[in-house]
Amino acid sequence: KNEVEQSPQNLTAQEGEFITINCSYSVGISALHWLQQHPGGGIVSLFMLSSGKKKHGRLIATINIQEKHSSLHITASHPRDSAVYICAVRLDNNNDMRFGAGTRLTVKP
Amino acid sequence: EPEVTQTPSHQVTQMGQEVILRCVPISNHLYFYWYRQILGQKVEFLVSFYNNEISEKSEIFDDQFSVERPDGSNFTLKIRSTKLEDSAMYFCASSKGQLSGNTIYFGEGSWLTVV
Question: Do B103 and A42 touch (CB under 8 A)?
Answer without folding.
Answer: no
